[in-house]
Sequence to fold (329 residues):
Amino acid sequence: MSIKNIRLEVMQFLEKSIDNFVDEYLVPVEKIWQPTDLLPDSQKENFIEEVRELREIANDLPYDFWVVMVGDTITEEALPTYESWLMEVEGVDNEGRNGWSKWVRHWTGEENRHGDALNKYLYLSGRVNMREVEVTTQHLINDGFDIGTGKDPYKNFVYTSFQELATYISHNRVSQLAKEFGDKKLSRLCKMVAGDEMRHHLAYSEFVNRIFKVDPSEMMLAFQYMMKQKITMPAHFLRESGEKISSAFEEFSNSAQKIGVYTANDYVDILRKLIATWEIDKITSLTDEAERARDYLMKLPDRMARISDRLVLPEETKKFKWVQPALTL
Fold:
């Protein structure tokens, strides 16, 4: 039997539990928070006062903080690209509306709220050139992305397990910084987004865990493949108006590292967590090739840690078109 057919069999096997996955890792629409719950309500009489207070606090937040906020928002707003990618994964049948396509749609529904909430906050803050943000978002959707997984569900689930944990870290750190700067509403908003990302991480991590139990060697090889080529962030094609693809992502990453929102050490920590969660050192019945892949993965975190310790960030911070100077209030 071909590798593709085995992948499909495993996906069909896991699909039998998809309703349980939805119930355990996603929240019903009527019960989950919505952006309006966390932002000034335009239907209330005190809306203008709440917006004025939001803008006063936002005025004191530093430049790199705003770069990270914009980058995180744009990444969340590019959701149509991510859904269309996942709908092409082997075993996901949107036309037949099978269990996996149900998962992707419901996951997308939850994720969609994140960009909506963050975008509204940016708009109200007065610290961001929203047209430039919108142009960048449209470019990112137009350009699409290539995360190196193809239609392989094993590789895609490694990617989503890693990426959802990375976004949890990023949003949670932004929440902590916002709280330190006195912006309690933004802190709560980002904390709620981070909570969603952690639930999603746990789901995709469990998918991988179950695949390891039924197809350990191929799952190990897929994990090794993804880590060898490195996990590419979904916004790696980030660019500003008039610029080329990928021109902005490295600078955005530098700002995130400078304020400690997401660093090279976090990348290594995530890898260690996945290795521990999936108990890579205890998996049995591996082929010789998969054993070599396991050896590579077990040694990789220490190797990457040595590299990250030598990383030097540029002193100058790029001036993005997205961020406006502080307001004169």
User: Anything to note?
Assistant: The chain has a mean pLDDT of 93. The longest helix spans residues 184-214.
